[in-house]
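Worked example

This section walks through a single chain of length 573. The input is the sequence exactly as stored; nothing has been trimmed or padded.
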Amino acid sequence: MILQALKGYYDRKAADSESGISPDGWELKEIPFVVVLNENGSLIQIEDTREGEGTKRRGRYFSVPQGVKRSSGVAANLLWDTAGYVFGITDLEGLGEADKKRKLSRLIEQKKAFIDRIQNEIPDTPRKKALVAFLSGIEQSVLEKTLQWDDIYRTNPNISFRFDHELMLYCETEGIRTALVAKAGSKEYDGLCLVSGERDKISVLHTAIKGVWGAQSSGANIVSFNQDSFCSYGRRKQQGWNAPIGESAMFAYTTALNSLLSRDSKQRMQIGDTSTVFWSAKKTQFENDFTYFFAEPSKDNPDEGINHIRTLFDSPKNGYVEDPDSTNFFLLGLSPNAARISVRFWRRGTVGEFAGHIRQYFKDLEIVKPKNEPLYYSLWRLLVNASIQDKSDNIPPNIEGDVMRSILDGTPYPATLLQLVLRRIRSDTENRVKPVRAALIKAYLNRYYNKEVIQVALDTNESSDSYHFGRLFAVLEKIQEEANPGLNATIRERYYGAACGSPVTVFPTLLRLKNHHIAKLENKGRAINFERMITEITSHFNDFSSHLDLHDQGKFAIGYYHQRQDLFTSKKE
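Given that input, the structure is written out below as tokens.
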């Protein structure tokens, strides 16, 4: 199902001439340096295609013949490769004599393999002859005179070729493309592809998938078998034959996934340790905007994400989600596992279903807040404010993926989320219940009870005692603050944890202190108002509880937050 959906995405992009996705047998590759030759095979210059500054300089991407999958052996690409394969050079500094000897021997093999592929797979033309002559005769002393020598020698970058007065690489020219298409068309079909259902040449080794956070830089595989114990009984003990996938389907799904995972892709996002990609069965605006619903807004345009979310909210009446009930939408979460890739989650639904769940996610987070607070919180901001010291490094590894699954499925959030945010409120003696934490608790509780038990703002009709305990604590804190302006620490710093966990052990003391504080208020009208508030709040419960469970502690935090926001809100507005 996953591979079929990826192949479908590739077919969709391939049908769009402006998509830029590589045709069968080709791939987009970063080529930082291009060797420019004349028709006789003499070196004219080496072009530096990199842009940017310092270590962030990146070369241009070119369409080149699909690269080979390398293991420990020597295998050259066609008409492009690293400097080690193209020139037979590499930086040997720091190697011992034995390693140098072994490396130099391997470099000779690499360069020979590179030239052999050109000799064997490219039609005989004057340009092929010129290129082979250049590669066979070029000496390091000549290369050392070029401006790009140091970078090439030090970084072993990808290199390709073009002839003078040509704009495209030699490998992109019509003659080369025609030759490669003819070669691809002559392949022998030897099996039935599980993805396409058609006869094809079965791919033994699949192209590596790159871009999964934490995976090997050389790439990893979704489909691979490297030990007999992994292989199907009675099958041919060749790797890809245990899950026969044709070369065309293999190319399609790997190209689609590599495209979605690329650095410039707008259809990927990092959710904890899971690299997540998403796409729809046909081109939709929802697909383009999906990242904005969860990502931290950019500093250059902080309102961009808000605008996309507003559009999503208005989608039932503005036609933003086209054909919402029949257009499929896919999400794939991947994480590394040595040389392989684990599928952490796979979701398939319609655009309308996902759009509805995301609208509900933002609705659950709605809560009264100060004007300087963001209108919407990114997923990262929600979780970092529930983590130790408000640091992203301390976000537990699985929580982000678990929360994301709850959002997409419209199901209750994991219990660990409430534990996490309550623990953070207890440890953060300075801020306690921030707006973002209150929003998170509200969202959790409403999903847990499957109804809107917690309102956006102060709810004096709330039925739970714990909510009113929190309200009472906020009023007692406010009385103390007004009676003793400039206090370094209030009852919030000293008593919040105990009041939240075991109200009966703290509130009698706080109510006695209240009498002392309220007597110090010079504004007697204010003192009367406070007494009225306390009377109204205490009328909702008979006695203080000896213990509050986690959900009641959440309601306590919300009651405290709602009441505190109400105390600081002008009633004239």
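What to look for: The CA atoms of residues 2 and 346 lie 8 Å apart.
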